[in-house]
């Protein structure tokens, strides 16, 4: 385990197993629809790629980069687009892929945006859900694991841009918070 973590919540094997299960459900639900799978940078990099590899149906992939945290530890509530889709959303069955839903600000914003572009459908898959963090009314259609009210890092999820490369998910030890 990385020395800056307090504990591992999900090992790489547990994640792989759950991703496979989710991919089976998604493959069933989107059979014949050629969904547009939209990975939300940067947190969902690992999950998006691993999920795509487990799908047994045709799908397209695109990415959007949005941010509301920057280097801070709490959501600013204001979501900014850093990179937009390069695919036309109109008429598409879109599956937004996220690493975690916390306040819900990011996903509420994205769902409204893509619905407004007249996608045929917009659904959300999030590997993690932290229900205790929710500030707006939104939920994912597919969730991998529920997580407690703790500082989560790894498997794409960062603190101040660090720890994304860890192949497992764990709780950050706040003794290692960067002090200004
Ligand atoms: C994190 C995370 C989710 C979002 C969840 O992204 O990856 O996208 O915050 O929080 P919310 O439900 O409170 O909106 P962040 O904005 O830190 O950008 P990143 O993915 O590039 O790290
Ligand atoms: Mn993110
Ligand atoms: Mg972040």
TrEMBL record:
<dbReference type="Pfam" id="PF00156">
    <property type="entry name" value="Pribosyltran"/>
</dbReference>
<keyword id="KW-0660">Purine salvage</keyword>
<comment type="function">
    <text>Purine salvage pathway enzyme that catalyzes the transfer of the ribosyl-5-phosphate group from 5-phospho-alpha-D-ribose 1-diphosphate (PRPP) to the N9 position of the 6-oxopurines hypoxanthine and guanine to form the corresponding ribonucleotides IMP (inosine 5'-monophosphate) and GMP (guanosine 5'-monophosphate), with the release of PPi.</text>
</comment>
<protein>
    <recommendedName>
        <fullName>Hypoxanthine phosphoribosyltransferase</fullName>
        <ecNumber>2.4.2.8</ecNumber>
    </recommendedName>
</protein>
<keyword id="KW-0479">Metal-binding</keyword>
<comment type="similarity">
    <text>Belongs to the purine/pyrimidine phosphoribosyltransferase family.</text>
</comment>
<dbReference type="GO" id="GO:0032264">
    <property type="term" value="P:IMP salvage"/>
</dbReference>
<dbReference type="GO" id="GO:0000287">
    <property type="term" value="F:magnesium ion binding"/>
</dbReference>
<dbReference type="InterPro" id="IPR050408">
    <property type="entry name" value="HGPRT"/>
</dbReference>
<comment type="pathway">
    <text>Purine metabolism; IMP biosynthesis via salvage pathway; IMP from hypoxanthine: step 1/1.</text>
</comment>
<keyword id="KW-0963">Cytoplasm</keyword>
<dbReference type="InterPro" id="IPR029057">
    <property type="entry name" value="PRTase-like"/>
</dbReference>
<keyword id="KW-0328">Glycosyltransferase</keyword>
<keyword id="KW-0547">Nucleotide-binding</keyword>
<comment type="pathway">
    <text>Purine metabolism; GMP biosynthesis via salvage pathway; GMP from guanine: step 1/1.</text>
</comment>
<dbReference type="GO" id="GO:0046100">
    <property type="term" value="P:hypoxanthine metabolic process"/>
</dbReference>
<dbReference type="GO" id="GO:0032263">
    <property type="term" value="P:GMP salvage"/>
</dbReference>
<dbReference type="InterPro" id="IPR005904">
    <property type="entry name" value="Hxn_phspho_trans"/>
</dbReference>
<dbReference type="GO" id="GO:0006178">
    <property type="term" value="P:guanine salvage"/>
</dbReference>
<dbReference type="GO" id="GO:0005829">
    <property type="term" value="C:cytosol"/>
</dbReference>
<keyword id="KW-0808">Transferase</keyword>
<dbReference type="GO" id="GO:0000166">
    <property type="term" value="F:nucleotide binding"/>
</dbReference>
<dbReference type="GO" id="GO:0006166">
    <property type="term" value="P:purine ribonucleoside salvage"/>
</dbReference>
<dbReference type="GO" id="GO:0004422">
    <property type="term" value="F:hypoxanthine phosphoribosyltransferase activity"/>
</dbReference>
<keyword id="KW-0460">Magnesium</keyword>
<dbReference type="InterPro" id="IPR000836">
    <property type="entry name" value="PRTase_dom"/>
</dbReference>
<dbReference type="GO" id="GO:0052657">
    <property type="term" value="F:guanine phosphoribosyltransferase activity"/>
</dbReference>
<feature type="domain" description="Phosphoribosyltransferase">
    <location>
        <begin position="13"/>
        <end position="159"/>
    </location>
</feature>
């Amino acid at each position: 385990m990385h020395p800056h973590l307090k504990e591992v919540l999900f090992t790489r094997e547990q994640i792989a197993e759950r991703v496979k299960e989710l991919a089976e459900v998604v493959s069933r639900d989107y059979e014949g629809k050629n969904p547009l799978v939209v990975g939300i940078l940067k947190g969902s990099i690992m999950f998006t790629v691993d999920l795509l590899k487990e799908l047994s149906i045709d799908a397209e992939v695109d990415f959007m980069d949005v941010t509301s945290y920057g280097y801070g530890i709490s959501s600013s509530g204001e979501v900014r687009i850093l990179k937009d889709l390069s695919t036309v959303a109109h008429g598409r069955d879109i599956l937004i892929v996220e690493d975690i839903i916390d306040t819900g600000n990011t996903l509420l914003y994205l769902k409204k945006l893509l619905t407004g572009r007249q996608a045929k459908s917009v659904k959300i898959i999030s590997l993690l859900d932290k229900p205790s963090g929710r500030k707006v009314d939104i939920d994912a259609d597919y969730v991998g694991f529920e997580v407690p009210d703790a500082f989560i890092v790894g498997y794409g999820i960062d603190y101040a841009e660090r720890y994304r490369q860890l192949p497992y998910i764990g709780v950050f030890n706040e003794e290692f918070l960067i002090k200004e």
